[in-house]
Amino acid sequence: MSVAGRDEDGDRRNVSDAVGVLVLGACATWSLITAAAHDGRPEGVLLALLAVAAGYSAGRISGALLPVAAPCAAALTGLGLTVGLPHLAPGPEIVAPLGHAGATAALLTLATGAACCAAWSTRSTALRLLLRVLAAGIAVAAAALGSVSGLVTCTAVLLCSLAASRMSHRGPGLAGLALAATAVTGLVWAVAGSAVPEGLAASLRGQLTAHRIELWHDALRLAREDTALGVGPGRFGELSKTAAELLLPDGKPHSAPLQLAAEQGLVGVVLLAAAFGWLLYALWRSPRPTPVVLTAGAALTALAGIAAVGNALSFTMVSVGAGLLAGLATAHPIVDDPSAR
Asked: Which of 5, 38, 252, 327 has its CA 20 to 30 A from that of 199?
């Protein structure tokens, strides 16, 4: 690579990193402001932001040093955590916790994305095939664990990764992913506001459970009461009647955008969208090959969809995994050509 090329890549990384610092800093600052205004508890938000930042930093470092081994290890770790931690799997409980199933699907989705990124990063045909078999095996593991949503999202990420080889430009692909995340969020918002046709609402109620939709109704009601600042971080459980009636209450509305709207107002929702937009922007400016970028983008978009209808981002390991995958897909390998090896 020429000196001019290296300088250009360095400028791109500097710009995307600066944007990330500003966005995450704004998210942290706004959570403290809304907490001070309504005596809220911002610790959960701050911990999630710290987890994303730590995962992103670790991904950038490990991805630069070990561009194939690092995402492979991340995929195996995600699969091992999901299988090894019984509280994450849906399990045979009569009433499964609403958040655990989402966390299972999220970890398996990120693991699939990491395995596919590792496959695109290697030059060995045999190793690439083996890593794709690993990604398919993670989807099979999702089915074995009873995670239907995990099976769907893992399969979607695998198919998007295979299709990424046919795309010469990453911009349209990333724009499509952003549109997909916006569509899912819009549907969730419409369900919360009872703005969908009755037939579709009945179908969604059967899939999402009536309790979850009632939580969404409460979240939207609280958001309307104080559109500017919300009710304060961590206070949804105190003010939601539906949350108090659940057998396993956790004080969450089980939808990241609706939780931000209820607890941090409209600005909180805008900052959440900005954080996701920053990840896509960092991928767009990444020096990694387009298939790696689009694979990571597909996995993060699938995670955004899971978070829109669940409580996955409340699990620290999911936030760390999201940052880690983004860091791996935006890292610049120190050794990037055969002659340098």
From this structure: 252
